[in-house]
Amino acid sequence: MKAVVVTKSGFEIADVPKPTVGPEQVLVKVRACGLNRADLGVLAGGAHGNVGGVGAIPGIEWAGEVVEVGARVRGFKPGDRVMCSGSSGYAEYAVADWGRVMDIPNPSMSFAQAVTLPIAIQTMHNAIVTVGELRKGETVLVQGASSGVGLMAMQIAKLMGAKTVIGTSTTAERRAQLTKFGADVAIDNSDPQWPQRAIEANGGKGVDLIIDQLSGPFGTQNLEACAILGRIVNVGRMAGRFAEFDFDLHALKRIKYTGVTFRTRSVEEVRSITSLALGDLGAHLESGKLALPIDSTFAFADIGQAFERMRTNKHFGKIVATLD
User: Fold this and answer.
1) Do 142 and 225 contact (CB within 8 A), yes or no?
2) For residues 80 and 5, what is the distance between their CA atoms, to the nearest angstrom?
3) Which of 176, 140, 178 is nearest to 156 (CA)?
4) Which of 1, 15, 60, 131 sits 20 to 30 Å CA-CA off 159?
5) Going by DSSP bridges, is the β-strand pair 164-168/185-187 parallel, antiparallel, or unpaired?
6) 317: β partners
7) Strand 25-34 to strand 93-97: parallel, antiparallel, or no bridges (unpaired)?
8) 89 vs 64: CA distance, rounded Å
9) Which strands sit side by side in the sheet containing 139-143, from one edge to the other?
10) Mean pLDDT across the chain
11) Per-residue pLDDT tens over the stretch 3-32
12) 3-class SS at 28?
C-alpha cells in the first residue's frame, strides 16, 4: 500500500506492507486524513508517542470504511463508515484500537467532513468537561481558537453550559469568524492588555476556565486573566514549551493548572474518553450542530502541499487530504 514515510530529508510516499489487525483493532480503508500539528513534529524528525524517526508513518486522524475487525471487537463490521484516531494514518490502510473508532454520525456526511472530528471531539471534551470541570454558567477562554480543535472547544463549551465563551486570535479576519463557532467575545492576544479584556468579559471576576493551546509566554498572562479558584488546562504548546511563570500569582489565585496529553494515556483511558465524549455529544454530531469548517482539501499525492499549508499557519479550520 502507499503511505507517507518519514525520511532523513523529510518524507516520501512509498510502498509499505499493509497493516494486520490485532484482536482488539479495526482495519480501515482510508478515504481521508486530517492534518494535525503533531504530525509536523514527526515529519521534522521528532516523535509523537511511540511514532517517530526515519521509516515512521505519521497521521493521527483518518476516516474510511471498515475492512476487517479483530476477534474481540464488538460494534463494528466490514463496510461500516467510521472516523478514527491513533497512529500511522497517512496511508491507504490504517488500524486503530476499537475504542478510538467512531461511526460517522450520519450517512450524508462525507469522509472529508468526518475526518475533521475525532481528535477535536476527544481532546476538547476531555479538556473542558472531564479535566476542566466546566460548570453551567461559567466563563471559558480558548487560546488559539481559530484552529480546528479550538473551534470545536468553543462549541463544546457552549453546548455544555458555558455562559460566556471567549476566543483568542492574533488575526482580525479570524477573530471576525469566531462568533460563528460559539464565541461571545473575540480577543486579540497579541495585545499586552488582553488579560484585562478577558477579566472584563466576566464582569471583572476573571475567567473560570482557560483552555490553553499556546503556553510559552502566555503562561503568566493566563494567570492574570484567570479568576480566583479558576482552572487552566494546558492542551498545547504552539507558542513554546518554556517561559517565565509567576508562581506567586498562581498561588495567590489558587488556580488549578493541569496538563493533558494522549501520549501517556492507557488504552483503557482513551476508550473512556471516547465513550464519554460520544455520550455527551453524539446527538449534536448526528444533527450536524457540532461541525468544523474545512480550510482546504488536497489529494493524497499532493499531501506535501497540505503540510506546507499548515506550516504557514494561515488556515482557518481543518486541512484534509483525500484518497478517493
Assistant:
1) no
2) 27
3) 140
4) 60
5) parallel
6) 147
7) antiparallel
8) 11
9) 185-187, 164-168, 139-143, 207-212, 226-234, 256-259
10) 96
11) 999 999 999 999 999 999 999 999 999 999
12) strand
Question: Could you identify the residue written with the cell 483503557?
Answer: 268
Residue closest to 76 by CA, chosen among 104, 97, 103? 103
What pLDDT does residue 227 have?
A: 98
Mapped onto helix, strand or coil, the DSSP state of residue 159 is helix
Rounded Cα distance, 35 and 31, in Å? 14
- The percent of residues in the chain predicted with pLDDT above 90, rounded, is 95
Beta-bridge mates of residue 296 = 319
pLDDT at 284: 96
Strand segments (E) across 53-194: 61-69, 81-85, 93-97, 101-103, 139-143, 164-168, 185-187
Pairing assessment for the beta strands 81-85 and 101-103 based on DSSP bridges? antiparallel
Q: What is the predicted pLDDT for the residue at 301? A: 97
- Please, are residues 143 and 212 in contact by the beta-carbon 8 Å criterion? yes
With contact defined as beta carbons under 8 Å apart, do 113 and 81 qualify?
A: no
Count of alpha carbons within 13 angstroms of residue 60, beta-carbon side: 22
Number of Cβ within a 10 Å radius of residue 257: 17
Instruction: Provide, for the chain, the percentages of residues in helix, strand and coil under a 3-state DSSP scheme, each rounded to the nearest 5.
Output: 35, 30, 40
Please give the grid coordinates belonging to residue 112: 472529508
Q: Please say whether the beta carbons of 292 and 140 come within 8 A.
A: no
Domains and CATH numbers, the chain: 2-117+292-322 (3.90.180.10), 120-259 (3.40.50.720)
Whether the CB-CB separation of 97 and 267 falls below 8 Å is answered with: yes
Tell me which residue has cell 483568542.
168
User: Half-sphere exposure of 190 toward its Cβ, with a 13 Å CA cutoff?
Assistant: 5
Low-confidence ranges of the chain (pLDDT < 50): none
Q: What is the pLDDT of residue 48?
A: 87
3-state secondary structure of 252: helix
0.90 surpassed by pTM? yes
